[in-house]
Design brief:
The chain is an alpha/beta fold and 445 residues long. It has 12 helices and 7 strands. The protein has helices spanning 2-27, 29-142, 199-202, 260-271, 277-287, 296-300, 302-309, 311-322, 364-367, 398-411, 417-433, 440-444; strands at residues 234-236, 243-245, 326-336, 339-348, 353-359, 378-381, 393-396. A 5-stranded mixed β-sheet has the order 5-4-3-6-7. It has a two-stranded antiparallel ribbon with strand order 1-2. A hairpin with a 6-residue loop joins strand 1 and strand 2 (243-245). Helix 10 (398-411) packs antiparallel against helix 11 (417-433).
Length: 445
């Protein structure tokens, strides 16, 4: 009931409002109000239109003024442009004239430059030829045993020390950082002494025994003279008068004899160390307190005695040389009684054999009768033409290749390939020398 009452009340208010509007229209009051509102809005619109027309007129006048100003500016710019263009054309004409003159001058100097280039090329060609001739002559003058195949004995007055292929690296001698050191070889002790432990370590609780024993050795070389004497009673025959005694052992021929220890030492000092006989006698006498006094006769016959007793060893060396796949061969000079002679050196690094053969001359006469004459393997030499007649294959000694490269580096310092090739040879030799002995023969074949 309450809802219907509110609804009816609302409808009554709406009906009353509509009745008021109808009366207003019937009386014409609403039309007058609308008319006044319309005229008011129309006057407002006319005012706005008038203001806009005035603004448009003002803007039109400004546009005309701006246009006139721009036209004046354009006329001024055109005048300036024509003036600048006229000046530019004049400048172009002057530049063209200057360009033509410069081209003519350039052509004249170019022709002169071509003539100078031709003269310079001729001079450079002649200079290069002179440099090459000078380089060749300098290389010939500087040729020696260090950078060519010339033997060291043929140096004449330009004799220099015999070097090796090593080059100074600037490093200090001895062990290098990062390289495992080589310790001294320990020996079996002939005497052993134990040092007593200090009391300050035994009774001190701050120290304990580690179980490790520190060993340090000192090697002493002693030279003593041992004289072994045999005695035998002598008898004489009553019938013939002959004197007889018990036979002495081998090696007891003279009243005083020297065994192999003395002879071997003297032989090595003479032949391996190139010590004179006088110095050998003095050295052995001083080392033995004057007990051993060798004669010149015995020292002179040591080489002959060695040659007679080393026949078996020579056969073994020759056998190893002949069975080796590679043999090194070279002639070297020697002096015998102030006379120039030759020594044929045959060596086999693979089989560890070397043989020195004295000859009066080099060449085929020097090879005749030596193991090289019948050798059938690879001969490594210094390009001596003699050696090409022996063996089946030939190879140049790497040392000579290094000498040639050293000579090229000295006489042609502006080149690069000789430095790189020499470094490559040194690297190859270093690698080869570092291989173990088991791999060596396979690589040398």
């Amino acid at each position: 009931m309450r809802i219907n009452f509110e609804y009816v009340t609302a409808l009554q208010y709406e009906v009353k409002a509509l009745q008021v509007k109808i009366k207003a229209y019937e009386s014409g009051e609403a039309y007058r109000t609308q008319r006044e509102e319309y005229e008011k809005r129309l006057r407002e619109k006319d005012r706005i239109i008038k203001a806009q027309k005035e603004e448009i007129f003002r803007l039109h006048r400004e546009i005309i003024t701006v246009r006139d100003n721009w036209m004046q500016v354009f006329e001024d710019l055109e005048k300036e442009h024509k003036k600048a263009l006229k000046k530019e054309m004049a400048d172009k004409a002057r530049m063209l004239e200057r360009t033509l003159k410069a081209e003519a001058e350039r052509d004249r100097w170019h022709n002169k430059w071509k003539e100078q280039q031709a003269a310079l090329y001729a001079a450079l060609t002649e200079t290069e030829g002179l440099k090459e001739l000078n380089r060749k002559l300098t290389a010939q003058i500087n040729r020696d045993f260090e950078n060519s195949s010339i033997p060291s004995s043929m140096q004449g007055l330009k004799r220099k020390k015999i070097p090796n292929t090593r080059e100074k690296t600037g490093r200090r001698p001895g062990g290098q950082p990062g390289h495992k050191g080589h310790c001294r070889k320990k020996h079996v002790p002939t005497e052993t002494h134990k040092l007593p432990v200090p009391e300050k370590y035994i009774n001190n609780p701050d120290y304990y025994e580690t179980g490790k024993t520190i060993r340090k050795q000192r090697v002493v070389i002693e030279m003593s003279v041992k004289v072994i004497e045999y005695t035998a009673k002598e008898y004489r025959s009553r019938i013939t008068g002959a004197r007889v005694h018990a036979p002495f052992p081998p090696g007891y021929t003279n009243e005083v004899n020297y065994d192999g220890t003395v002879k071997a030492l003297a032989f090595l000092l003479s032949n391996e160390c190139n010590v004179s006989h006088g110095r050998i006698r003095t050295l052995l006498s001083e080392l033995t307190d004057g007990k051993v006094e060798l004669s010149d006769g015995m020292l002179n016959h040591l080489s002959e005695e060695f040659a007679l007793k080393s026949g078996t060893e020579k056969k073994e060396i020759i056998s190893r040389l002949m069975s080796s796949p590679v043999m090194n061969a070279d002639f070297t000079n020697a002096n015998v009684n102030e006379q120039s002679t030759q020594v044929l050196v045959l060596a086999s690094p693979v089989n560890g054999a070397a043989l020195y053969i004295g000859r009066e001359k080099k060449g085929h006469e020097g090879v005749k009768g030596t193991p090289l004459e019948d050798y059938t393997g690879t001969v490594v030499h210094d390009y001596d033409r003699t050696f090409y007649s022996y063996g089946t294959r030939h190879q140049e000694c790497t040392q000579h290749d290094c000498r040639y490269l050293i000579g090229s580096k000295e006489n042609e310092p502006d080149l690069e390939w000789n430095h790189k090739m020499h470094a490559l040879f040194q690297e190859m030799l270093h690698y080869r020398n570092g291989l173990c002995e088991e791999e060596g023969p396979d690589l040398l074949i």
